[in-house]
Design brief:
With 279 residues, this protein is α/β, with parallel strands linked by helices. It has eight helices and seven strands, in the order βαβαβαβαβαβαααβ.
Length: 279
């Protein structure tokens, strides 16, 4: 019961990875609040947790609307009395911030196909959406919940960055840039909160199959796409990660007994991807 009497708030908790986080913290004794714009997805996971005899509550919340987050915060405090650990897991990419090809060639400049996206016709609205979801969607919950967390002992905020923040992947400049911003913000906030009893760190997952990326990595026959094969070839462990393989890292960063002097780090969990030069 590592987190007994602690309350953990998780944004984006209706997704694969953050849903796994919610289950892990509940199994370790925490009261867990699952925040998600898609209430049904979060509530399904919360019900699974309750069915196992643990404590969980789903709350509809939009990480880009401060009023929505303040309402969620009020519900958390009415139900559980505190927020000790905040996990900013909401994020994602958008096709409008994604190029069609990995490399630009001269003939691409003459391509008039409406579905073809080069760097030069990336939609600013798509870029804006991705940046807002990932960066503002981390900053705003930190503002709302962090204001009260400062009165607790041993509070922790954990952001979810990405290996894209270290080395950007082809085709997704908006997502890579937004996650780099999350990593930088993690360091900034760790310094800013260092006198206020709140540690701030992040995990940087490598490649995990989720509902968001499955269509890009697995074809209709269940086989890996060429992009997925390239990822596997450049991951020394030779496979995608499983959601449960993030649990140890995030629980370590959340536990003030284990990581009381760990502050402002971005911890890769990537199967060796960042360490491999490809040769």
């Amino acid at each position: 019961m590592q987190f007994k009497k602690k309350t953990v708030v998780i944004t984006g908790a209706g997704g694969v990875l953050c849903g796994a986080f919610a289950k892990a913290f509940a199994q370790r004794g925490a009261n867990v609040a699952l925040l998600d714009l898609n209430f049904e997805s979060a509530d399904k996971i919360a019900q699974e947790i309750r069915d196992q005899g643990y404590v969980a509550l789903a709350i509809a919340a939009n990480v880009l609307e401060k009023e929505s987050l303040e309402n969620a915060c009020n519900i958390v405090y009415e139900k559980f009395g505190s927020c000790d650990i905040l996990i900013n897991g909401a994020g994602g990419n958008h096709k409008l911030g994604t190029t069609t090809k990995e490399f630009l060639e001269k003939e691409d400049l003459l391509n008039e196909d409406a579905d073809f996206v080069s760097f030069f016709n990336l939609d600013p609205k798509g870029i804006e959406f991705v940046f807002n979801l990932n960066f503002l969607g981390t900053l705003l919950p930190s503002q709302v919940f962090g204001k009260k967390m400062a009165f607790n002992e041993g509070s922790a905020i954990i952001n979810v960055s990405s290996m894209n923040a270290f080395t950007p992947l082809t085709k997704i400049p908006a997502y890579s840039g937004a996650k780099a911003a999350v990593s930088n913000f993690t360091q900034w906030l760790a310094v800013h909160f260092s006198k206020a009893n709140i540690r701030v760190n992040a995990i940087a997952p490598g490649f995990f199959l989720t509902a968001q990326n499955e269509k890009l990595l697995v074809d209709e026959n269940g086989n890996f796409t060429p992009r997925a094969e390239k990822i596997i070839a450049n991951t020394p462990m030779g496979r995608f990660g499983n959601a449960d393989e993030l649990i140890g890292a995030i629980c370590f960063l959340a536990d003030s007994n284990l990581s009381s002097f760990v502050n402002g780090v971005v911890l890769p969990v990537d199967g060796g991807f960042a360490a491999y030069s490809g040769v």
